[in-house]
Amino acid sequence: xxxxxLALALLLAAPAALAQNAAPSGDAFYAAPSPxxxxxxxxxxxxxxxxxxxxxxxxxxxxxxxxRSSDPxxxxxxxxxxxxxxxxxxxxxxxxxxxxxxxxxGIAPLCAPSLDTAxxxxxxxxxxxxxxxxxxxxxxxxxxxTDYQGLGAGDFHPFLQGVxxxxxxxxxxxxxxxxxPSLGRRFxxxxxxxxxxxxxxxxxxxxxxxxxxxxLGTIAMAPxxxxxxxxxxxxxxxxxxxxxxxVLYVLQSYATTHTEIDLTRILTPQAIAHLPxxxxxxxxxxxxxxxxxxxxxxxxxxPNPVLGPFLAIAARNEPGALRITTPTLVMQGxxxxxxxxxDTDATVRRLCAASTPLAYSAFPGVDHNGVMVSGASAALDWxxxxxxxxxxxxxxxxxxxxxx
Length: 404
Hints:
- It is a single chain.
- It contains 13 helices and nine strands.
- It is an alpha/beta fold.
- A nine-stranded mixed β-sheet has the order 1-2-3-5-4-6-7-8-9, sandwiched between helices.
- Helix 2 (about 125-140) links the parallel strand 4 and strand 5 (about 140-145).
- Helix 3 (about 160-180) crosses helix 4 (about 195-210).
- The protein is globular.
């Protein structure tokens, strides 16, 4: 009687094993089947062992996934990401899960963190992320990390679109739990920069999109915000601006999803002609090479641009407008010139006014990526306290200011 049962067990296990064994090698892994196969709304499409920067060295297993999520219009889309499991036996209830949301790397498929190696175009940034996350692996947390739609798999990245980025992060947890049953259903979310923006939207979206999971808290490091204000600054600047490529990423992202936004009524013909340059390599390339490295910011915009449709969508993507009911920690360096400290101050004030249970930590003199280093220890302590069931202290009544 035991042999038929064994045969049945092997048969049931075969699809997952075959999916991993049959996964294409190299970058072909990211080419999603078209159309996507029918099945579960969040089914894993492919899996294979992960190598490269996001293969966290302290993990017992690092797995690359191609999974099903949804695009900004709610249609099924393939997204890539990684899952890293601590060594040893999971605690009762499964491994505590952190879903990581990364900051801006670019808008082209090759900018996905799961593709990064030591020679990758955004390696210094992604290596900083990996160092941060490896510390959480050593502390006994499982890490799941979406690349977001269009980075790795696909060709359109909904940059700074809060809801689709959040759903990518939540569906990443679901996919990871399919291949790693040792993962618990309790989770936290942590992100930096663009990913700080996505983390806050993940907190707001979780009760609606993934009610079977239990969110315990959110850490947003230097979260992107104040989209309209940053556009206004760039449009008025007589210099080459660090923020110019970011603004152009947002304009293209929103215009692709919302056809009422007409870039020919916002940008000059010369600027539009050079938009494809922003998909050559990734963010570092856009800031240092070619047309956009020297372009004068204000000269890229028409004298009387039609901004109304864009500003309406930007307002819907402001994290300060969210309703978040779970503990939230925002971290910001005062030396940050990428996400301005005064912008994060304003977002925190707005979240506090909406009764978000929030703590705000300002790090004097710390720059944009440095907040991931300077804030790592405090973030780890905060995460441990959430999974331990401890009450989260807030400071909305006496807020610090990172902006001076």
